[in-house]
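Recall from the previous lesson that a structure prediction takes nothing but the amino acid sequence as input. Here we apply that procedure to Elongator complex protein 1 from Cyclopterus lumpus. The sequence below is the only information supplied.
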Amino acid sequence: MRNLKLLKSLRSTELRGPGSPLRLSVRADTGSLLVASHCSITEYDPRTGQVVSEASLTAGGFLPEDGGGAVVGLQDLAELESACLSTAGGDVVLFNFNTCQLECVGSVDSGLTSMSWSPDEELVVLTTGQETIIMMTKHFEPITEVGIHQDDFGEGKFVTVGWGKKETQFHGSEGKQAAQRTIQEVRPAAAWDDRAPRVTWRGDGQLFAVSAVCLQTGARKVRVWNREGVLQATSEPINGLEQALCWKPSGSLIASTQRHPNKHSVVFMEKNGLLHGDFTLPFSKDHAKVRDLLWNSDSTVLAVWLEDLAAGEDQQVNLWVAGNYHWYLKQSLDFGRDSRKAPVCVCWDPERPLRLHVVTRGWTSVTYDWGWATERSPGTDAAADANVAVIDGDKILVTNFRQCVVPPPMCSFELQLTSPVNQVTFLCQPQGTNRLAALTSDGQISVYAQGESCDRDVRDAMVSVPGEEPLALRQLLWLQDELFVGVSSSLPPTSSTLLMLRPPRDADATLTVSSEVEVDGVVVSAVHGSQTGTVALQLEDGQIRKLRWGEPPLVNNSTLGCSINFPVPCVQTALCSISGEEYLLGLTDRSHLYAGDTELASNISSFGVCNDFLLITTHSHTCRCLQLTTLSVKGLQAALASDGGQNDESLRRVERGSRIVTVVPQDTRVVLQMPRGNLETVHHRALVLAQLRKWLDSLRFRESFECMRKLRINLNLLYDHNPKVFLENMEAFITQLGSISHINLFVTELKEEDTTSTMYPRGPESSPVQTRPVSGQKKVDVVCDALRSAMESMDPNKFFLSVLTTHVKKTVPELEVALQKVHELRVNPPRAAGAVSAEEALKYLLFLVNVNDLYEHSLGTYDFDLVLMVAEKSQKDPKEYLPFLNMLKSLETNYQRYTIDKHLKRYSKALHHLSKCGEEHFHEALQLVREQKLHSEALRLYAADGAHYKALSCAYAEHLMEQQQAEQAGLLLWRCGEPVGALQAFASSSSWRNAICTAQQIPLPADQLALLARDLAEKLIEQRRFAEAALLLDQYAKDCEEAILALITGSVWEEALRLIYMHDRQDITETNLKPALSIFILNMSSKVEKIFCRNNNNNDNNPRSSSSDEDGPDCPDAELYSEASSVMSGSKYSQSNSRVSSRSSKNRRKAERKKLSLKEGSPMEDRALVYALGEILTTEVHGLLKALVLFQFDKQAEKLQPAYEEALQAMEAAVPEVWLTGPNSTANSIMASFQQQQRPAAPQPGRHRLSSLFIHNSSCDVCLCN
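The prediction returns the following tokens.
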């Protein structure tokens, strides 16, 4: 639905020469024009009006001086830096651009009728006066010469395989009569046909076609040849085929013209010579002749060069465009009847597809540059119809996209004019954006206003604009009801003139130029900003000017307040506001999108601005929608550069090649056109969400709900957008929705997910809203409770089904409550008109919930009427449920409920009801408790002084024993009066104090008590609880010697001495105590030295950063440490990494110690070593020193005490390195750290941040006697 819009026209009258121009060619590298006339060849620069080079054809004898010669071909050869021309006399001449010399490279005695070079400039085809074709290379070496008229069809001749006769074959829509149809006689070519052959090449240079008049019939026939000069196909006999011939560069079709008895058509042929489509020219068959057909370089526009047969010199050039299998006449250039203005040469530019060059008989050259543009109404409010106007000859096809989407070439309505339309513009005033004006080829402006009725107000006015060439007025803008602004060319050609067109004071229908504004530069686009009223002009070099269109009008050479000059010219522009600042957006023909001088993206195929949004389509087949009010230019760059996330609302995938046609203002619809021409309407997610947020902010819940339901937006957004406002306006929400089904749909879609952070995330600039108005409650429960409360207060009978839905949808479905309400409705049916019956309510409830689940929940209400009501609506066989229900009815109430609850696997409730059933059912209760592990609940249901409680306690104790919780089992048994069982439990758990108490409570005989004490002591020794084991052996087993040996084994020296002297066993001192001291001192020294050395080596050789150490055993490098490292055998410092609760500071420290391991290479090895040293120094060394002094081990004590003091000093000195001051540091460690930092030596990096756990002034001051 795009039109061709004239960007600029360059008119030059500087070129002069004898005779008239005959041939025209364009130099691809310089853009200059090559014009061959009856006398000379001239290279001319149309931008400067200067002749670059020139050579006389008559002086060299290539053309006669009387002007009777003719040039039949002219071609620029970029590789040879020359131009090749051929004359009717038979000469082929090269014109060198550098030397301006002519060179004849060949001559044909019979003369030449045409010359055509292949697109790759490797081959040239010449047709001679003897009706032959000569093919040569670019160096003019002959390849072949064949006759034009061949009797054979060619290599592509159709083959008949003999499958049936012609009479029995299928003939399509023509029916069986096609078999009997006789071949019509072909009439000769028209009288005005010049009988000269026409040659045209396919775009890839592999085939060329020749149209020539057949010698037998006198009619034209088209033959297709390949690159080697071999005939491929001959066209079928076509009655009325004319001279024009042009092969579409894309290679699909060959265009020509055909005169029918009742119409004049442009026809298309395939390479096999068969016709394939046509379109009719908009005039009668004898009105005009087609001088030539010209495809542009990208095959999008077909130029038809016409000459009026009646008027003689009246010539036109029409530009046709195809879309959706329809041909549109987009531009009509009427050159009038002045013979001096009639075009004699027309050609497309080889580099710019939409640039057309025309040279008139009066030596005037005009260059037209067009661009593609979609003419859409500029309205931004809801009253705008989103009209799009498509030019189609003398008709304007207008489509109202707010009301309907009509695929072209159909439309909402057609506007019929008297002449072909060249420009369409809409009124820029906000109140009249649905009005449009059309400028026709004869200079008339027609204004159309759409009214409420089918009739449309039409006003016509002629435009008086100075200018000799067609399309003298371009870039037409309708700023006010009686003010038009247009651009016209001026002299010099590097400037433009802005024309302010107004109607005169009198009533004649002519728009006159009320004022003119000169612009230093060629204006290629003029665009109006709907929000600010600014008119921005773009010059051909990318500069931007601002038009002040007041009285008097003025062009401001300064920009729009920021540097917005485009680096390169743009073919499509639009004004918009980005973060409150006005910018001009521009799209180049190379798909680059600019905001001023900033490139936003480089893969844009189309864009549009609507309200506060920028919509673009890309060559990666996406449609992006970005909100301009929340993004800066840098933000736009970043957004367009990103690929978008999964929930990126700004991105949408579209079909390959889609382009934006229009965006319906204040709506969510975006209309896209596919490459083949059909339309597609999409609701872009960004536009939808923006519109929904506006509606929700204004409490328009009904419009929001309908839009979300239609476009499949999650209904949770109604609440998630602003929960507090939604809950406060619950009644308004219910009233606006009105429909019960709509409310139910909303409730059933509720879920805990916050859609504003997952599916539809808000932008970073959006203001935060309260997402959870009620703390501690779930979203679904909050909304259901609020909805139910509001509906019950408004009309409980009307919204009864919705109330049931709120019960069912809760996080824990309240099915029993819903069933009870249905039952109440059945017992007390409402009398209000339109109220829901119990049958309908139950049927709806069965729709929401599985019938089996509902049946089970109805059983849980213990209401058999309700159960029967549900069962009757289910698919259950009465033979299945009636016996079960009858059995239940026959039971005692509590036992009945127990049976129901057990059936429903509600065991806690079942136990509660069974506890009320009496003595005879206790065994059943005990079995239920054991099976379902309900011991705690059972103990709460029975009195503590009863036999049932004791039996339950014993059962609970058995369960605890199975769970390895023997101490708790013992307490429970002791509590309920089972000391024997409690004794066994305490003994197995090493709870020796409780075991002794229960043993004395039984009471046990002395010998058995002693035996018990020995067994407990053995277990305590295994657990390294030597002091407790010694107490048992001494006091209860009455074995002082074993008690003393246990203390010596555990290095409890002072307590061992106490028992030795208490029981007068000094002999043990010499036999056991002193030898144990000697062995222990040796083990202690080596142990401390080994741990201390490992710690130093670990700090020196393996420094690790605190960040990695903070990761603990789960750090990435933990797996690199050796799993086979040696572990200190028997070390009680190796701990597991079990999870420990950290409810207090003591527990936290304990949990930290549990993470430590003395395994070499472990991530926490250094910390484990520090803790091990601390425990040894604080618990073992002090008592050892005192024992050594007491028993005169002075030498050993002298060695141990300095080592102990040295270790303390070394550890205090290492405080700043090992334990950086932190939240867990002690006062001593912090002071030591500060004192250490004042020393010159800097701490080594990578030390651990630990608290000082054991460095205190605890040195042992012991007097050593020599």
